[in-house]
Protein 1
Amino acid sequence: MKLMPTCNEAVEMMSKSMDMELTTVERVGLKLHAFLCIHCKKYWDQILMVRDAVRQAVEKQESEESTCSLKPLPEQRKAELKALINNSLST
Ligand SMILES: [Zn+2]
């Protein structure tokens, strides 16, 4: 297998890398190609930017969701829990 992919192959690998891990050979070839080919480098940068933006949006959403589930307990529930703990401590 040749090390240096063509532009078409490089673009194919880029879109593949969005969905799955590339093999080491593919990654090296892609890096090499992006290093030598300014057009693919630009395209690759854009793909990475979009991927990062998507990832950040997902992470942000997830952290917001977990914050929601961490809303403080209602006072009554707190008192119940306290009574429960006191009971189990005293027995
Ligand atoms: Zn290229």
Note: The CA atoms of residues 83 and 89 lie 10 Å apart.
Protein 2
Amino acid sequence: MKENTTAPESINCSKYRPPKDYTHTQELIDNLPYIFMAIIGSIIQFLAITLSIWGAISAVIYFIYAIVGAFWIIIFVCPYCNYYDTRACPCGYGQIAAKLRRKSDENRFSEKFKKHIPVIVPLWVIPVITGGISLYFKFNNLLLTMLIAFIVNSYLILPLVARIYGCGHCPQKADCPWMI
Ligand code: SF4
């Protein structure tokens, strides 16, 4: 594992903090909102598609999609990141990426981020659509509760944790479409 020694360049942001090494506990905390999104999203799929076998199948597909999506980012984005193979990556993906792929050109990080992030965007959208349609036709208290929990977790907590807890340290934040 390399040390993160890169000095920040062209960063002029009030949220900037110097790079730090994250513990495994801190990495887990950073991953929790994404894990909750995968779990709650799967429950919504199960509840919304009331033909039970198809609900179960769609819940499993959604959960597998969330896992594949995480590895998609690890394989196709993280090798271009300054935090590849360092403990300065807040979620630990950079260390997993180092076991799967070689380091690539950091100057292409923004290009790779823009290209690959749309692959996981439907994870945020699918449960809202299926849950919303199901509620429209048949009200269900549990489904509504799950839908609210999903929206609060995925649209508020997850981006807040990423931007303030993790990305505030990133030397590439000036190039990162997520931050813009
Ligand atoms: S900071 Fe983001 S892009 Fe960089 S290695 Fe970690 S997860 Fe990947």
Note: The CA atoms of residues 33 and 158 lie 5 Å apart.
Protein 3
Amino acid sequence: MRAVCALRIRLAARFIASYKMHVAWMRILFKHFIAVFFHIAFISTALVFAHNSSAATAESAEKTPSQFFLGNAENGKILAEVERCQGCHSEEINDNPVIPKLSGQHAEYIFKQLNDFKSGARKHEIMSVMAADLPESNLADIAAYFSSIPIMHGEPIDASALAKNLFINGDVKRNILPCASCHGNSGKGQAANGVAYPAIGGQHRKYLRAQMVNWALGERTNSAGGVMNTIAKSLSERELEALCFYISGL
Ligand code: HEC
Ligand code: HEC
């Protein structure tokens, strides 16, 4: 009887032990299941996110007005030599005050101007000919090259309060929007929302002046909505002179 009893107790103990093992295993498996579940959930969320963000990049790339960013700056450097652009626009020799500096100019802006010279939307004896000769496929490369050079800078000058105030605050009741709102506080321009605002800070004073006069007289009309014509027409001769002096020193 004692032996039977002892056997039952042992069996019961073994049963309890195996039950405990079972529960322990179930716990481990459950924990693993949860971990695997979260891993799968995390990886699939990450994949969906990555897919969405690459789709967003592709979409915003399509919205850009030009394909400039696909331009190859190295090839553009060679083309700028071959096509003789460097004869006039090279950084080293560009001290002619009516030939604009192109160093660091926004690729989108250069690309647009070359197209405008080609189509006649902007007119200039030399540049219309130079651009007409340029194969379409080379425009992006040339634009990419000039924009890859460190951006133009002027010599700091003692600017008048009149010029500084017009540049930063404009005179909105006279239709003079602040230059800084589009060309940036230091005049280094930007490409935003499909519009290319050129760098003007550090550009040759004479070139700036010539363009402002062209805008005022309506001889240049290629700014979006004619905004530059409206602004230039509203400036007095004294204001225009002071502004160009100030901007060339930025
Ligand atoms: C003989 C000199 C000369 C040569 C060569 C020349 N340019 Fe020009 N370029 C000018 C002048 C002058 C202007 C200013 C036009 C104006 O006053 O409207 C200009 C303007 C430009 C502008 C507009 C800049 C701005 O700030 O609006 C771009 C872009 C440009 N040139 C690119 C080129 C490229 C690219 C080449 C080579 C294919 C080239 N140029 C060859 C003289 C030259
Ligand atoms: C609402 C935006 C806006 C404001 C404000 C503005 N600009 Fe512009 N400006 C432009 C755009 C856009 C262009 C380029 C147009 C084109 O595509 O040819 C431009 C071009 C120019 C150019 C020609 C640059 C070159 O390299 O040929 C000059 C100079 C200039 N602006 C000066 C000024 C001055 C000075 C002021 C302030 C009194 C001013 N801008 C205010 C948008 C603006």
Note: The longest strand covers residues 190-192.
